[in-house]
Write a structure and sequence with these properties.
The protein has 607 residues and is of the alpha/beta class. Helix content is 35%, strand content 18%. It has helices at 32-35, 45-55, 71-85, 90-102, 107-114, 126-135, 179-189, 198-204, 213-220, 247-252, 266-294, 309-318, 332-347, 372-381, 391-403, 436-445, 498-502, 530-543, 564-573, and strands at residues 4-9, 16-21, 24-30, 64-67, 120-123, 142-152, 155-163, 166-174, 221-223, 229-231, 298-302, 323-326, 387-388, 408-411, 425-429, 454-458, 477-480, 518-524, 547-552, 578-581, 584-587.
């Protein structure tokens, strides 16, 4: 008999579903990709339907559903926290409680109503689900596990041990002391959105000087050698209000929080550099302590903070562990996968398979794909002008177009699970051109000009451009660009103008080289994503460069595209030059005139 286990995460942010059949990861997807609501927290109805359709099973075929959180423990934390600060926090209480009392305390009823009335439901602790997502999906059968995020129930960070099919959490840091919430407080203060703008703060950090590090360490937190920390709550408002910081925090940093969308000043650059440096130190302290108390050679990372790829690079280079594996969907979406894996291995006591090479994540290509017939039907229905490329011309056509300075939307195979585009739903450009970063940020992505792009590089050529040995298939490690490829630029202190810094070429692949000569690289192997690797190989044959700009196929504020229709809509709404749809080739200047609708998410108009 088959064993079908569905994992679910929802009601906080990044709702998702993941399905295991006999321990194999069959499907996983975030709800936002279907609803087109960024970080959609609602029950993942569409993601569940996709998982069932991918496996060709009915809801009644599900043996267990595992939820990634224990709502009663979370409610206990909220209730205890509000009582502790009463009468302060009334506004926050009135904001949070109606949804809790109407929805989050009755998750079993919601699951049975949406899926099946007789399904068996299990619950995992939040950080245990994170730990499971990292360890069980990793290639290791004996490892230390470190999880870090804002908060789950009471825990904010944990250290655990994975041995065979068992996981044990042996250390916990509890709310309100949280590295994730500390970083989110600075995200809010610098004018970015909490739970989605943290990567912007990380991208801004290299442009500043870490001159506030000592102030942060002396006033905001007490950091111990083991990585545990105690926050000075006199500066934070997330216990009592709807904001992350208060007037004391503003006074400490010379004025009120930056207004969103207003110009970024030297203060924000330096604050970003400072909290990034502090975060890296906290994580390194935690990593060394995990090594000391577990005695393991390998480390698995998960939780939202594990998406801080700059810190991950330092852990890999400076940490004590021989090998590192990071869950590609480290945030709450990955909790759905971790919950399912925990049900299969932890609850049902099934063995963790021993792997000779690679992990169990299948490159994180776990989302929907579309057949040639489905794509052609869409193109014909909407009267799109297209060319069908024979297999032998596909990679060379895409590569030549990019080498000519054009930008291509690349849609190939199964959609990625997690926040990174890995060559299945990507926008590709030429990293050698000094204007690529500006063009792609302002005319295609419609986002802040300082935001960096990642290099996708042929795995066997990565060491020729980056100070990096090994694999980084999930774009979760930052590594230095080799000195032989760098170009000198003006010191950071010489200009407060962010645009002047962004537009300076830092290397001979300037579009993917950050101000500090670093890059968040993705190594691409022939067996990981063959179509994408072939484009890289063809580009290398044409230009001698084995690197491409790879950024997610979406515009600012929109989730990564899932379907051919969403890809075409994004293509037409931006200044992309061409679109590759799994063998079909579309040129912008051959398409019918695009007419923007009032709500482009719901309407699709051509004439």
């Amino acid at each position: 008999m088959s064993n079908n286990i569905l994992g679910i995460s929802c009601f906080y942010h990044d709702a998702a579903a993941a399905l295991l059949i006999n321990g194999d990861i069959v499907a996983a997807a975030q709800e936002e990709r279907f609803t087109r609501i960024k970080h959609d927290p609602d029950f993942p109805v569409n993601a569940v339907l996709y998982c069932l359709e991918e496996a060709a099973i009915a809801p009644s075929d599900i043996d267990y559903i595992v939820f990634y959180d224990k709502p009663l423990l979370t409610f206990d934390r909220l209730l205890s926290s509000y009582i502790a600060v009463a009468p302060h926090g009334l506004r926050s209480w009135l904001h949070a409680m109606p949804r809790w009392l109407a929805q989050k305390l009755f998750i079993p009823n919601i699951i049975r109503r949406h899926i099946h009335p007789e399904v068996r439901i299990l619950f995992s602790k939040h950080h245990l689900a994170h730990a499971a997502s990292a360890y069980y999906a990793s290639p290791f059968n004996d490892a230390a596990i470190l999880t870090m995020d804002g908060v789950g129930e009471w825990a904010t960070s944990t250290i655990g041990i994975g041995e065979g099919n068992r996981i044990k959490l042996i250390r916990e840091l509890w709310f309100p002391d949280s590295l994730g919430l500390l970083y989110s407080a600075f995200t809010y203060f610098c004018g970015f959105k909490v739970n989605s703008g943290e990567y912007k703060l990380m991208g801004l950090a290299p442009y500043g000087e870490p001159r506030y590090v000592d102030l942060i360490l002396s006033e905001l937190l007490d950091l111990k050698d083991d990585g545990s920390l105690h926050l000075n709550m006199q500066y934070f408002s997330y216990l009592t209000g709807l904001k992350m910081t208060n007037h004391r925090f503003s006074h400490l940093f010379g004025g009120p929080p930056r207004v969103p969308e207003s110009p970024i000043t030297r203060r924000e650059m330096d604050i970003a550099a400072s909290i990034q440096k502090v975060t890296e130190q906290v994580i390194l302290n935690m990593v060394w302590h995990a090594y000391k108390i577990t005695g393991k050679k390998y480390l698995c990372l998960a939780g939202g903070v594990a998406l801080n790829c700059v810190a991950n690079g330092r852990v890999l280079r400076e940490g004590p562990f021989d090998k590192l594996w990071i869950q590609p969907a480290s945030g709450d979406a990955g909790g759905a996968l971790g919950a399912a894996l925990l049900g299969y291995h932890g609850y049902l006591n099934n063995p963790k398979p021993v792997r000779q090479t690679g992990d169990r994540q299948r490159g994180s290509y776990l989302g929907p794909s579309f057949s040639k017939q489905e794509i052609r039907a869409f193109l014909d229905t909407y009267g799109c002008c297209y060319h069908e490329l024979p297999p032998e011309k596909r990679s060379s056509t895409v590569a030549q177009f990019i080498a000519d300075g054009k930008v291509v939307g690349f849609f190939s195979g199964k959609m990625e699970f997690g926040p990174r585009a890995l060559g299945a739903r990507s926008i590709l450009g030429d990293p050698r051109r000094p204007d690529t970063q500006k063009i792609m940020n302002l005319k295609i992505k419609y986002r802040e000009s300082f935001r960096p792009f990642a290099p996708a590089v042929m795995a066997d050529r990565a060491s020729e451009y980056f100070d990096f040995e090994g694999d980084s298939p999930y774009m979760l490690i930052v590594a230095p660009v080799l000195p032989s490829h760098r170009r000198p630029h003006a010191p950071a202190s010489e200009s407060d103008n962010l645009l002047l810094k962004v537009n300076q070429a830092r290397s001979d692949i300037p579009a993917v080289t950050h101000w500090d000569y670093s890059a968040r690289l993705q190594t691409v192997s022939p067996d990981g994503h063959p179509d994408f690797y072939q484009v890289l190989s063809a580009f290398e044959s044409i230009t001698g460069c084995p690197v491409l700009v790879n950024t997610s196929f979406n515009v600012r504020g929109e989730p990564i595209v899932c379907t051919p229709e969403q890809a075409y809509r994004c293509f037409m709404r931006t200044e992309m030059d061409a679109l590759y749809l799994d063998g079909f080739w579309l040129l912008k200047d051959e398409q019918a005139r695009w007419k923007e609708s009032r709500d482009w998410r719901k309407e699709f108009v051509l004439d």
